[in-house]
Predict the 3D structure of the following.
Amino acid sequence: MIKDSPNPPSDSAAFHTAAHRAINHYLNPPEEPEPSTEGHSLFTVREGLDVETLLVNASEDIGSVQALTSHLAFEIEGTPRDVALGICRILEGIQLLVERALDQRSSR
């Protein structure tokens, strides 16, 4: 007959030590280190990324948000539409700034 688990240690002391170690592992897990309170943001940016990579990703994200707000502006009416168009125009300006920074970076 095949057993599902190996034979327990023949030494009673070793058996008790292993049992206590297993119990402590599940019932008394080690304390987790306190989370850092330096920043309260959910996301972080990986260290070591070059400026061009950061600017390209920022430009793509801005373009995506701009497309979302532009689409939203044509789905709603009244004051909310004006707000969405205002956000869209602000994003266009920010995207122009990021693209200018990318152009200056690549012309070096």
